[in-house]
């Protein structure tokens, strides 16, 4: 299989109904937001019950991998989501596993107990790996994913760079993972780290497309979150360059009772997509301010329950609960 064929492996995204009528900018926002995904950190029973009143049953919900916590907690959250009808997509950080056998056992339980068929595969940022595993490539090449019925993977992208990895190494690793996954028949999408400015994201995706990489991209955004929490996660996740961009977003903190919301960024990205700069993209929301809060906001945007403002963003109206 050629490199170009490898880069073209995709997981299809849905488009909104063509019959929707409204301002062009609102339609562009809806087109970008129609296939959004949610990321949560170990949602409890109350979180899952709340999500059940907001989301459709088959909504994919990504589960963060927390290095300091037992993987059994992530498994329990995945089982909880599956029981509620959702599609759990766990992060699998290979550096957190003591051996390939431990990774095998974890994937076996995720598949058998939580019905997992898609994962987000990362190396992980542990300073000291739990064992000999170092990178996502090792897991892709191991055959374990196919053994456990996992046919789709997401891999990480870094529009603002990575604090520990040089840009050239990020490029090399991304291409290697895409080509290897394509060789063994895995569908792939890229999920990016969250950011606060449109320009680095637009430039990064355009660069991928210029290189012939047509893989679908989910653009990471922080959902509605208070500023203190948002800054804490930004520092913890190594997006310090984007913190400067956050400070420049004078209109960012204005919705949801003083919480920050990415409306200006969504609107700017929708305009860029409307100019044909992106190819296959969707939005991926990190729920630092709460899974239900983020889900309500994202659903309102996808449904066009928004009012544009002169500052380049928009206000949202809460969607009705699912009956």
For the biggest sheet, the summary is: 8 strands, parallel, barrel
**Rg from C-alpha positions?**
19 Å
Shape: globular
CATH class: Alpha Beta
Low-confidence stretches: 1-22, 250-257
Name the structural class: alpha/beta
Query: What would you say the CATH architecture is?
Result: Alpha-Beta Barrel
**How many beta-strand runs?**
12
Distance between the termini: 47 Å
Question: What are the key terms here?
Answer:
single chain, alpha/beta, eight-stranded parallel beta barrel, two-stranded antiparallel sheet, 42% helix, disordered N terminus
Question: What does the model show?
Answer:
This protein is α/β, with parallel strands linked by helices. It has a single domain, classed as TIM Barrel. 42% of the residues lie in helices and 17% in strands. The chain has helices spanning 3-7, 24-33, 45-52, 71-83, 100-114, 136-142, 144-147, 167-183, 198-210, 227-236, 240-248, 263-274, 291-302; strands at 37-40, 60-63, 87-93, 118-122, 152-157, 187-192, 217-222, 253-255, 259-260, 281-286, 306-308, 314-316. It has an eight-stranded parallel barrel with strand order 1-2-3-4-5-6-7-10. Strands 8-9 form a two-stranded antiparallel sheet. Strands 11-12 form a two-stranded antiparallel sheet. Strand 6, helix 9 (198-210) and strand 7 (217-222) form a beta-alpha-beta unit. The chain is globular.
Question: Can you summarize this structure?
Answer:
The chain is α/β, with parallel strands linked by helices. It contains 13 helices and twelve strands. It has a single domain, classed as TIM Barrel.
